[in-house]
Specification:
Helix 2 packs parallel to helix 3, helix 3 packs parallel to helix 6 and helix 8 crosses helix 9. An 8-stranded parallel beta sheet has the order 1-9-8-6-5-4-3-2. By secondary structure, the protein is an alpha/beta fold. It is globular, with a radius of gyration of 19 Å. Strand 5, helix 8 and strand 6 form a beta-alpha-beta unit. 41% of the residues lie in helices and 13% in strands.
Length: 358
Amino acid sequence: MSSALTDLFPHPIVQAPMAGGVSVPQLAAAVSEAGGLGFLAAGYKTADGMYQEIKQLRGLTSRPFGVNLFMPQPEYAESGAVEVYAHQLAGEAAWYETELGDPDSGRDDGYDAKLAVLLDNPVAVVSFHFGVPSRDVLDSLRRAGTFTLVTATTAEEALAVERAGADAVIAQGVEAGGHQGTHRDIPENDGSGIGLLSLIAQIREAVSIPVVAAGGVMRGSQIAAVLAAGASAAQLGTAFLATPESGANALHKQALTNPLFARTELTRAFSGRPARGLVNRFLREHGPYAPAAYPAIHHLTSPLRKAAAKAGDAQGMALWAGQGHRMARELPAGELVEVLVGELDAARTALSAKGDLR
């Protein structure tokens, strides 16, 4: 891995930026303090909201951390489909006694304003989801002393990341919880995601920049596996979701290991873009009919999700989780990093011993 990144944190563990209030400063600080790389999620926040969280995090740790940005989204193809879906959700709005959100609340997520803040107040790492920034943006961040990462879900997307001038690529396997970071949202490709180990191999053969592996990683032995496959570090999200420092709703944390939520699926039900979550009533009833219209559907369903959480109804919430959710551990984030490092060292020792026996 490029020493520019490895010099920032001693352990090959990156805490995934989880938008929606999960990746709070307390979580990022605990991970960074333990020797991993903590991350803030700027998605769905204002530029000032992001800046205030950066200030808070800097008050909690002097160690490096990252900030994640969502790329602006293009016009969705069929605006009429959003209206049809809104009619379908009318019963949900009546049940939760709330109004549906405004689907036209914006597609750029305050991207330019957030970039301006990050250029004026540089952080160690900035990552991007849902597309590739321009070379000018990446060069500007580099001049500010910021290391850049961009998510890719295929080797072709990784090539685009490298050509744009990013410092490293996040290989996001289909096992990952939350939104798939595809560069273009193509409904015909739904269900065709690539598993993490295969994706790492394909990306390693396609590009020369370092790879950070993301998707379903919950144990130190899995970190050892992705490092052996060619990744330079592992990014874990669901593993940190259940920690006390996580800002996730208590119902969300409990659902990770609740037998009632036995599996995950990729769905457009809550946001209009494929995202992996625990299968609940809302996902089952509305997933098959949700259009490809992100972030319009996200804005539309936001009041429903908040009302469900307020009512204590996990069946109406977006319970984002990766395929390894049943392996979640309710440990403090710093302690979890220590446990993962111990498991990683044990896995490496076991592999070395097997090699010696041969």
